[in-house]
Amino acid sequence: MRDPKRPDEDLARFTPAFNSLPDQRCLEGWHFRNERNTGPNKGTVNAPQLVREFYFSPEVGLSMEYPLSERQYQRMIKQGRGVFTITEMKLGNLQPGQTATIQTMKFKTTLYIGF
Questions:
Q1: Please, are residues 2 and 13 in contact by the beta-carbon 8 Å criterion?
Q2: This prediction's pTM
Q3: How confident is the model at residue 62 (pLDDT cuts 50, 70, 90)?
Q4: Per the CB 3.0–4.6 Å rule, which of 29, 39, 73, 110 could disulfide with 68?
Q5: Residue 97: its pLDDT value, please?
Q6: How far apart are CA 115 and CA 93, in angstroms?
């Protein structure tokens, strides 16, 4: 999604991070493994998983600056929402104590604009 007034910016720029958790837009192999990288993350690592929801607005960076006020947040969530769902993934570097990587991934993305 491009704003014709800001052609060098994309959807990622219109999506602010809201908390100290890893950004929903960033995908890393360690999100899906336990702390020691000895098995799957069964909730022990606080990281986004296979379904990731995000909100966006072309007003971010213009009339909306982070941190957003409650009023700005409510306006933004009415302007755009996305759901990113990982449907298949193969992880690599699964040695204990190492950091897992993503080798391959299939996903689907649904965007809701101005709902």
A1: no
A2: 0.77
A3: confident
A4: 73
A5: 96
A6: 41
Which tokens sit at 33? Answer: 């493994």
- The whole-angstrom separation of Cα 52 and Cα 89 is 15
Can you give the residue ranges of every domain in the chain? 29-113
The token pair that represents 112 in the structure block = 């809701």
| Direct distance between the N- and C-terminal alpha carbons of the chain, in angstroms, rounded to an integer | 16
Asked if 91 contacts 33 with a C-beta cutoff of 8 angstroms, the reply is: yes
Write out pLDDT tens, residues 69-89.
Answer: 888 888 888 889 999 999 999
What per-residue string of b and e applies to 35-57 under the rule 16 or more CB within 10 Å gives b? eebeeebeeebebbeeebebbbb
Q: Which residues sit opposite 89 in a β-bridge?
A: 105
Angle among Cα 8, 15, 85 to the nearest 5 degrees reads 110
